[in-house]
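Sync notes, pocket subgroup
Present: LS, DG
LS reminded everyone that the earlier model was apo-only. Rerun requested with S-adenosylmethionine included. Inputs:
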Amino acid sequence: MRVDIRPDTTIAEALTLLTRTLGEAGIEAPSRDARFLLQGILGLDGADVLARSDRPVGEDAGRLSEAVRRRVSHEPISRILGRRAFYGRDFIVTPDVLDPRPDTEAAVELALDLIEARGLSDEALSIADIGTGSGILIVTLLAELPNARGIATDISKAALDVARRNAEAIGVADRVEFVATTGLDGCTRPFDLVISNPPYISTGEIGGLERSVRDFDPLEALDGGADGLSVYREIAQNIVELQRSSVLLVFEVGATQADDVVKIFSNSGAHFLKARRDLGGHTRAVALEIHL
Ligand SMILES: C[S@@+](CC[C@H](N)C(=O)[O-])C[C@H]1O[C@@H](n2cnc3c(N)ncnc32)[C@H](O)[C@@H]1O
């Protein structure tokens, strides 16, 4: 499907064309997506779009046409624009990383609530983020906790490069080390907080995911093994081998996985502290503690 946006097409005309093309292609919320793409590519906010509606799109015409072509193939908007807002900050997103989800903010909130409730917000905490992807978890936590330091691991070197760029852009790169490894393999020192949003879709469910996920998120960011829980088990094993002192554990979980994940870590000596729901009402993050 083609859309003919020329340099002399006005912003208002472009918005109409984008909306119509996305609607005809069966995109669920065509006018919302058209606005996001237009604003993102022209670098305008909603008020600017209204105020400048009769101005031509100029040299951005080609980028707008290309963006529509990609969205019609169900590519997520954040991938087309190359960035995504998370917990109030802007993150670089590339095809090498999971497109960060708003639901993942539940894990950040849970971790920060526990740290604050214990009066630890200004302490020199040591944090590990396993499966860091774009780095949203570790970068956000270090930005919120000015004296904390961290390690972020991933099996994907390409993802670690994106996370490093985000750490630099957000100004926390001097407090984080990026390590290409599985789980916490090779890490030798214990942590005060371990956080992770690991892959948790069962292998058999991946083929049935919606196109915007199945065709665009990296497989290693989705596939959690036969029952979706294999990386949680790996992390539990790592923690048992590594920790010599108390540790807080915070995990994002799939919509029906909270009990299973709590059980995996309880079997490794952790006790359940708290859970947090996402906007859809599902338990999305769980917190536990190993007290030594
Ligand atoms: C669901 S994504 C989460 C990315 C990011 N933390 C977020 O919340 O957007 C999971 C990430 O874990 C990585 N991964 C998968 N298996 C892993 C393992 N065994 N050890 C470390 N990282 C792993 C993937 O490459 C991917 O970047």
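DG: The mean pLDDT is 95.
LS: Residues 97-98, 100, 104, 130-134, 136-137, 153-156, 159, 182-183, 197-199, 220-221, 231, 234 surround S-adenosylmethionine (CB under 6 Å).
Action: DG to write up.
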